[in-house]
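Protocol step 4 of 6.
Sequence for Ribonuclease HII (Planktosalinus lacus) entered exactly as in the expression construct, tag removed. Do not edit the line below.
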Amino acid sequence: MLQLKLHKEKIECGTDEAGRGCLAGPVTAAAVILPNSFVNEILNDSKQLSLIKRNQLKQLVEEKAIAFAHSHVMMDEIDKINILQASITAMHRSIKQLNPIPEFIAVDGNKFNSFQGIPHQCVIKGDAKFLHIAAASVLAKTYRDAFMDKIHEEFPMYNWKKNKGYPTLEHREAIKKYGITKYHRKSFKLLPEQLKINF
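Step 5 output, structure tokens:
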């Protein structure tokens, strides 16, 4: 089982994002404060979990958490500020919604900008080490997937319901055939060098 958090005595949130490597759709982050009594042997990095498990854990986390929030940063903002800053911005916006305000922030990965002077620590592969970061990873992934499922209805030819906007061969072939949509990130290399695309 993963560890609960870094500091038992503090109100500590875990935060993580989903969708950094996608060609379309938002980058989505979540932040979660779990009670000290929280235990779960299944909760882990969302990428290690089946769709059914993720959805079950989303419901469980939202029932048991002291506080949780998520935030999407959309494509136009990603294109303006770059994907790393967009990921951090999504985390900040999630943390800002939490009540109570955390006294410490545990961040998945190795990059973060200080938020309102609250101490933080970056943890490489934190979503496979700490329950609150894993919980945030599950929420970020499930909320982002739900967004991609919704916009799939508008543009089914890209099959976002399946690929969630990631650069699969099928997704790139659809871009080559149909061009891009308002949901594509124009600052990303949407096709390999030899295949040009007109914006």
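Step 6, annotate. Residues 25 and 183 are 5 Å apart (CA to CA).
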